């Protein structure tokens, strides 16, 4: 598994389970956190790249990571992991009575 994580605010999250490729489309955030981001998709907004070019960059990076190249979060040691505290038991619409 490889996660593609789009961020505008600049989350520096990684994963203990699989590599995370961070794609940032906010040019200012990318400049501020470039060491933590993998792809500068904001180039499209600033006319420094096209959608096709950024798409190819993402595709090429996915292939490189699948072959063992480390993502920025892996290189920086981000390996966050959390167990959810909510039940995975399905719950019906609010208009139905809850089971006891």
From TrEMBL:
Q: InterPro entries from the xrefs?
A: GD_AH_C, UxaA_altronate/galactarate_dh
Looking at the UniProt entry, the stretches that span the membrane are: none
Q: Which GO terms describe its biological process?
A: D-galacturonate catabolic process
D-galactarate/Altronate dehydratase C-terminal domain: residues covered: 1-86
Xref: PANTHER family: ALTRONATE DEHYDRATASE, ALTRONATE/GALACTARATE DEHYDRATASE
| Name of the protein | D-galactarate/Altronate dehydratase C-terminal domain-containing protein
What is the organism of origin for this protein? marine metagenome
Q: What is the lineage of its organism?
A: unclassified sequences, metagenomes, ecological metagenomes
């Amino acid at each position: 598994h490889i996660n593609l994580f789009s961020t505008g605010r600049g989350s520096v999250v990684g994963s203990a389970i699989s590599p995370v490729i961070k794609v940032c489309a906010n040019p200012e955030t990318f400049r501020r956190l470039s060491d933590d981001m993998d792809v500068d998709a904001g180039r499209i907004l600033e006319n420094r790249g096209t959608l096709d070019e950024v798409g190819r960059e993402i595709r090429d990076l996915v292939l490189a990571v699948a072959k063992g190249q480390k993502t920025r979060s892996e290189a920086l040691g981000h390996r966050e992991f959390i167990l959810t505290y909510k039940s995975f038991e399905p719950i019906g619409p609010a208009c139905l009575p809850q089971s006891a």
